[in-house]
Amino acid sequence: MESDSNPSPVLYDIIILGASGFTGKYVVREALKFHNSPSSPLKSFAVAGRNHSKLTQALKWAAAEPNSPPPSIPILTADTADPASLRMLCSRTRLILNCVGPFRLHGDPVVSACVEAGCDYLDICGEPEFMERMEYSYHDQAVENGSLVVSACGFDSVPAELGWMFNSKQWVYPAVPNQIEAYLSLESDKNIVANFGTYESAVLGVANVDKLMELRRSRPRRSKPKIPGPYPRKGTTIEYQKEFGLWVLKLPSADTAVVSRTLATLTKHPQGLPGVKESDKQTEKRKKFWSTTKPAYFGLKLGSNCLWGLFQFITLGVSIGYLGRSSIGRWLLLNFPSFFSVGWFSKKGPSEDEVESASFKMWFVGRGYSDLSRRMSTEDGDKKQEPDAEIITRVMGPDPGYSTTPIILLQCALIVLAQRNNLPKGGVLTPGIVFGPTNLRERLEHNGISFDVISRRVVCKFGRCPF
Ligand SMILES: NC(=O)c1ccc[n+]([C@@H]2O[C@H](COP(=O)([O-])OP(=O)(O)OC[C@H]3O[C@@H](n4cnc5c(N)ncnc54)[C@H](OP(=O)(O)O)[C@@H]3O)[C@@H](O)[C@H]2O)c1
């Protein structure tokens, strides 16, 4: 095993920081699947963190060899509170995969070190304030230094990003979407449980929601895309979706914030962002990709197949929302996670069986116009124009936190390694803008995350007909 005191530094394709964490060790397991296989660009990687023996244990676990020595993956020591150790990581890799959360507490020095060194950075953050703060603090420098910084390369927010794009692409001229609404349902025949790290990030996010609002107010307004038709009507807070058999509730989520940043970038750059050294063929491909991706109003709702499940979401939301704002409340929430989250979060995280049995479905209901120009010219005023067409698509995959997230993070990393010339030179960007025009969707499909068209309907004189 190589130690970080090696005098002649070796360059690794990637370094996984926070590899000893609950999610980090699943990311290591996913990386081992692609390490050194003939067609994989991942020829070398190292793990990093602050505790050597925990990292050794994580490697053993990831290699599924509890009683053998860990696989010969180098272990590097780094602490997010020690900038020199982060600079050392950046000098030894092209790409850091950051799994150290909550990101609001630990992420800034890692992004800063990467941007300074011109090293690429991906993470699994689901905290809008951190992502937007990094964008405001480091975007220009990251562009200049050629450092690509992409947060939310996990369940937050790639299924939502690729999911709305996939739905949007089903609308072929003269059909256009007006709204794409996502309905998320988590499923398991065991308990649905997530690790404390995600819960802590959510509690701190709620506690600091004022800072997010303040940050947004302090910045120029983002450009908004031109979307055909009026703003969609607000539905009721809780509704029953007969189509999917789900009770659903509107959810303030990282996904909505990330998708709206992608839409704002697209409004400014309708052909997307050019790759740093892309070929003419790639330029054509990118332009075609974005010209067939139409913007739409996006929202996300959380669903459960029974009202009791929805009641549990509400209890969790109210507990975090109410208690998360005071220090005593936060102390209670963070010390008794299972109690306040009705068993959904625990300090020891889900068992392997619980991870194995969990899955998610995300339905995307696109509503729009089968032929916008005909519809607008046949009725009075466009304010009351109701969409007449609907396309439903679905993204489906294994456990969101510990299977889907590592799959997505690794596939994004492999794209950065193999297709760097086709990606923007640098900047703090969303996964949709960076990976939308690549083959990320096809890669996810090969790795167990599916994208399907479920139905297409239009209002016709016989009621609702296929279109
Ligand atoms: N996007 C998604 O869908 C998704 C899915 C899963 C998780 N996440 C996010 O990922 C983050 C981690 O979650 P988790 O459940 O894996 O948490 P966790 O088990 O607590 O892991 C945290 C990791 O960070 C490391 N760490 C903490 N402080 C550090 C420091 N000062 N320097 C270096 N390393 C440090 C820990 O190292 P030690 O082992 O030494 O303590 C550990 O490896 C959370 O923010 C969570 O929200 C997102």
TrEMBL record:
GO BP, sorted A to Z: glycolipid biosynthetic process
InterPro entries, sorted: NAD(P)-bd_dom_sf (IPR036291), Saccharopine_DH-like_oxidrdct (IPR051276), Sacchrp_dh_NADP-bd (IPR005097)
Matching Pfam families: Sacchrp_dh_NADP (PF03435)
Gene Ontology CC terms, in alphabetical order: lipid droplet; mitochondrion; plasma membrane
Residue ranges of every copy of the Saccharopine dehydrogenase NADP binding domain listed in the record: 14-150
Family: Belongs to the saccharopine dehydrogenase family.
PANTHER family assigned: SACCHAROPINE DEHYDROGENASE-LIKE OXIDOREDUCTASE (PTHR12286)
Protein's recorded name: Saccharopine dehydrogenase NADP binding domain-containing protein
Organism whose genome encodes this protein: Linum tenue
